[in-house]
Amino acid sequence: MDTQLDIHHSLSGDRGRYWADLAPGEQAEMTYRRRPDGSIVIDHTGVPRAFEGRGIALQLVKRAIEDARKGGFRIVPQCPYVAVQFRRHPDWADLLA
């Protein structure tokens, strides 16, 4: 996707969510839970089928990477998509929990 998405973040208790509005009624999202040690477990990434293949999910992951670097926390990539992205980006290895 050529366009940089406006990615939002919310946290409620130990559950968090990154999301982007793509079209009316259409959102991409990535969800996680925060562990007692401060790390996050990313457990789901979803992009509506009509928007797949545009790099949207990767933008969500990159936002979490940016937040982890700024916030000093680590990530457990439980979601298969996120795990693949960690393998493709060895420069993120220092953020693995």
Q: What features would you describe in this structure?
A:
By secondary structure, the protein is an alpha+beta fold. The chain has two helices and five strands, in the order ββββαβα. A five-stranded mixed β-sheet has the order 1-2-3-4-5. Strand 3 and strand 4 form a beta hairpin. The protein is globular, with a radius of gyration of 13 Å. The model has no long low-confidence stretch (mean pLDDT 96).
Describe the secondary structure blueprint for this structure.
Elements: E1 8-12, E2 15-23, E3 26-34, E4 40-46, H1 56-71, E5 75-77, H2 80-88
Parallel strand pairs: 4-5
Antiparallel strand pairs: 1-2, 2-3, 3-4
Residue share in helix: 25-40%
Mean pLDDT equals 96
Our measurement of the CA-to-CA distance between the termini, rounded to an integer number of angstroms, reads 29 Å
Kindly state the number of beta strands.
Answer: 5
Net shape? globular
Low-pLDDT sequence parts: none
Give the strand order, joined by hyphens, for the main sheet.
1-2-3-4-5
Structural class computed from helices and strand pairing: alpha+beta
Topology as H/E string? Answer: EEEEHEH
- What integer value in Å does the Rg equal? 13 Å
Strand content: 25-35%
Please describe the biggest sheet, giving its number of strands, its sense, and whether it closes into a barrel: 5 strands, mixed
Number of H- or I-type helical stretches = 2
